[in-house]
Amino acid sequence: MLLNDGHPGRRALSLGALTRRPHGRRARDLDYAVIGVRATGPEPAPDVGVCEIAVLRMRADGVVAREFSTLVEPSVSVAWRGMNGIGPSDVIGAPKAAEIVPDLAELFAGAVVAGHGLAMTARFLDTDFLPAHLPRGLPGLCTLRTLRSQVDLDGYSLARASYALNGRWPTARHSALGEARAVARLLAELLQNAPGEFRYVGPQPARPARPGAAGRNSAALGGSFRLKARTSPRGSLPASAARESVAGPLAVWPHRWRPLELDPALCAGAFGPDDRAAAVRDAERRSQGRRALAVGAAVTSALAATGAARALAHRFG
Question: CA torsion sign, 277 to 157 to 32 to 126?
């Protein structure tokens, strides 16, 4: 189940999906690299670049192995402060995108890259980090499409979904790190609260980087640059929040699971009422088709068994 354009070798991410059907790999056996990105504009363009990125390397149970976050000095002018809270002075002294590619490659190695609205994040990885040799075709999982596919909610924005499911408004969600933490919590809770076993269908994570491979932690050091944390008020994380871990108590979700999972490929875009209705009708058609196949298989098996019994009776009768 691939949700991209069919050319994973050309892009940083190749999107897979979670399913309750018995296909693919157990989702709770995988590691996840949960990503948040902020840019100087709403989507990739010649005059838009990434100005902040955060990644949480996390186990399926919510235990965070590593947290990485830094402002990024883009190759374009820094605008859009009203939306991302980042101005030109904030990125002075921050690393360039190419300088943190070794860190990102290490964080992504052996993991499924997850994010809310991951298709747009993937486009920023393509434009800003692929030219600096970020690995291509990494397995991806969009939590936005996953929630739409599996859970019936009024709204699926990160803030609305978090509050509806775990009662928490995400802390500093306007920052890349705040977003990544909120997404990581939702993902861990999704896997914990699932009504059945989730499986990941898509590209399999590559073997993790060997111990001692290149990379720096967020205190950093030993390179020709230092990571730079956000200090502007909008999107800043208070000291108490900065010490929080996704490994804290995970919420028990209210029962909002869809009786039939929707095709994640139909859960993109605005996902308005007409889109939802079309996706539900598609799920019902597919369910009816599976039931018809099961009935056909059962009838065929019964006829074969009857024929075999008759043959034996004729032979020994």
Answer: positive
Helix (H, G, I), strand (E, B) or coil at 118: helix
| Residue type, position 40, single letter | T
Which domain does 162 fall in, by range? Answer: 8-257
In a domain, 109, yes or no: yes
Residues 295 and 201 in one domain: no
pLDDT, mean of residues 22-45: 96
Total-model pTM: 0.83
- What is the residue-wise DSSP string for 145-207? HHHHHHB--S--SHHHHHHHHHS-PPTTTTSHHHHHHHHHHHHHHHHHH-SS--EEESPPPPP
pLDDT grade for 69, boundaries at 50, 70 and 90: very high
Decide if 55 contacts 111 (C-beta within 8 A).
no
Within a domain: residue 302? yes
Long-range contacts of 269-275 (CB under 8 A, 24+ apart): 271/148, 271/156
Q: What whole-number distance in Å separates Cα of residue 13 and Cα of residue 139?
A: 6
- The DSSP secondary-structure symbol of 48 reads B
Residue at which a domain ends, from 229, 257, 285? 257
**Domains identified in the chain, total number:** 2
Are 257 and 195 in contact, with CB atoms under 8 Å apart? yes
